[in-house]
Amino acid sequence: MSENGVASLERAFCGECRERMLRAQAIVEKGVANLTVEDWNQLYQDFDSLYGAARAVNLPDMEDLARAMASYMRFLKRRSFQGLGGPPGALLQRTITLTTRCAGAWNDCMQHAQVDELRSLVAELRAAVRKPAAG
Amino acid sequence: MTTILIVDDSATSRMLFKAHLPKDAGCVVHEASDLAGALRLAAEVRPDLVVLDYNMPDKNGVEIARELIAQGVKAKLALLTANTQAAVVEEANDSGFFTIVEKPITAAKLARLIAEAAA
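Structure tokens for the assembled complex are given below, as produced in the milestone run.
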């Protein structure tokens, strides 16, 4: 694929990231007690699709983050988690915030401190699925 | 000329699919991002090949395929997925897919898919 083609794909990915994170943020802002099964499913769907899209454009750190969050959503759903209070909600908000920030300035994100923050968050999410859900 | 309908909720994935199409394959590609779009376009353009992503927001790719078949779509069906667990493969095989293509899509995989669909 040409350099222009790769650049176009990355722009498309960033646009898709922003759109999905806007939707995720709107869901989270409904509040802990108000989330429905459909909200959960939408959150999982958005992160799982982002995982596939990041893989398609060869962005491994973003792929890891989206996949880790999708796994975390699945983990919480299996435990009939009722809301987003406490650590699960905080992890979700941090993921949305970081993904949104990276989508806005991808090259900066990957070259500066954000990449360490991203990898640290991935590690937390992976560790979280090995623990009982809180709240 | 092969008419292809790609059904994937990811705009990035659809763009990658089109970017990897062989330039001399004589393909026309239409895109849908959900069940409603897939049903509408399948009726309009009568594709030869429908490529469905498994993980979709309202119904998964296998469920959409069943709806397409129920609507009378005669196209060959291919499932595009990063999840090749046995349960998904079995579900796809039982639902009329002639092949499963593992993500990420590449030019080689797409060329092979189009050739197999035309056979």
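The mean pLDDT of chain A is 82. The radius of gyration of chain A is 15 Å. Further analysis is deferred to the final report.
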